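Cross-check.
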Amino acid sequence: MMPELGLIEGRFGRIWTEAERGHVVQTLAAAGYGFYHYGPKADRALRRAWRERHDPEQTAMLGRLSAHVRAAGMRFGIALTPIGSTHPFDDEARAALARRVADLDAIGIDDLAVLFDDLRGDMPDLAARQADVVNFCAGLTRATRVYTCPTYYSDDPVLDLVFGDRPAGYLAELGRRLDPAVRVYWTGEEVCSRAIDPAHVERVAQELGRPVCLWDNYPVNDGARMSRFLHLRAFTGRSAAIAPHVSGHAINPAIQAHLGCIPALTLAAAYRQGEAYAYGAAFAEAARQVLGAAFAQMLQQDLPALQDVGLERLGSRGERLRARYASIDHPAAREILRWLDGDDLMTDDEVQTQ
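Predicted model, tokenized:
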């Protein structure tokens, strides 16, 4: 059994080009993915400046993306992070939300996501105010599915450290107050979960009063630390046994659009193959599909250097890698070269301002 698979473009860092995004849509649709949610943190009109509509060029791009995703047989969604709308949730906030939801509806969306991830959570009546905002938007949109992501989207105590202690009973109260049709994103026991097990998602579902939609933070590699590594290996720790316990399973992608398709394909294989899944063989097959046989074999040889060692510790190996991949005329090889040049590295300041 395979749950509905999707991609939530919800990372920090460089926004993909239209061509990169188009390649990802086609590749994942062919692998059986069912939805694509657009919400990069660097798109200010969806986050820091959410009250302002996209400019005409951005609006046209999103319209083309919607048409492309739908033509590929996937549902298209846009994710809005309405910073400051909950405190106070007043007439001005309602008017701004109504205006922006109408803007997104006009682009053409099947799904609307209202996100509160990576925001301060030490505010009074947090769950109640967030539920009010989501339910308000759900009552306005023409989208047929609505999602939200809580501020505390994992059990991971790092969220309390960074965003303030979570209110007592936060998740259960949010679940009680949300419209029963709203789907809730959840990353697992950790922000970047090493494993996601049926017992865990069952427990969270009981607390929320609905199954979760997984927001899987792999192969994402944003932020100052993770951008030093390429996340290429196949999925592990995601047993097909979780399928009956979730409403969907979305991945948050890597900065490298073409390379990130390799692990994305292995998630579909993990569900499809069940107990027969072997992650090494899954990587080899996915890499062959994305890169071709010779390039895939070369990448498999270099996995430890690219995913485990990290850019700053490559030393002279970095120049050897550059020589190897400079001879290959492929977008994924150019992504490796760009990473070796440090062009996709991120800083803490960049994260904090997106």
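The chain has a mean pLDDT of 97. The chain has one domain: 5-283. Passed to J.P. for a second look.
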